[in-house]
Automatic annotation (TrEMBL):
Name recorded for this polypeptide: Aspartyl/glutamyl-tRNA(Asn/Gln) amidotransferase subunit C
Assembly mode: Heterotrimer of A, B and C subunits.
Enzymatic reactions: L-aspartyl-tRNA(Asn) + L-glutamine + ATP + H2O = L-asparaginyl-tRNA(Asn) + L-glutamate + ADP + phosphate + 2 H(+); L-glutamyl-tRNA(Gln) + L-glutamine + ATP + H2O = L-glutaminyl-tRNA(Gln) + L-glutamate + ADP + phosphate + H(+)
Function description: Allows the formation of correctly charged Asn-tRNA(Asn) or Gln-tRNA(Gln) through the transamidation of misacylated Asp-tRNA(Asn) or Glu-tRNA(Gln) in organisms which lack either or both of asparaginyl-tRNA or glutaminyl-tRNA synthetases. The reaction takes place in the presence of glutamine and ATP through an activated phospho-Asp-tRNA(Asn) or phospho-Glu-tRNA(Gln).
């Protein structure tokens, strides 16, 4: 596939990049170079190669998915101006 100046101008417009008309031939050449690299990658045989998410194989540390209250009730309520029976106490707003 080859990109001409018209296509390069359209890509620049779609990407909302202002490109001066005299820079379009260079941009088209760069696009063609990038497409050439992509075509080279398509020639690589990757049969039997597992996809990877990192260059070093590692597993994320996992913990048990258990619901807790955080065990910080006293610490949280210590910031409250008024706390009663383990809850924030607020003024009544509904009559």
């Amino acid at each position: 596939m080859s990109i001409d100046e018209t296509t390069a101008a359209r890509v620049a417009k779609l990407a909302r990049i202002k490109v001066e008309p005299e820079a379009l031939p260079g941009l088209a050449t760069e696009f063609n170079t990038i497409l050439g690299f992509i075509e080279q990658l398509n020639e690589v045989n990757v049969d039997g190669v597992e996809p990877m998410t990192s260059v070093t194989p590692m597993r994320l540390k996992r913990r048990q998915d258990v619901v807790t209250d955080g065990n910080q009730q006293a610490k949280v309520l210590s910031n409250a101006p008024d706390a009663r029976e383990g809850f924030f106490a607020v003024p009544k707003v509904v009559e």
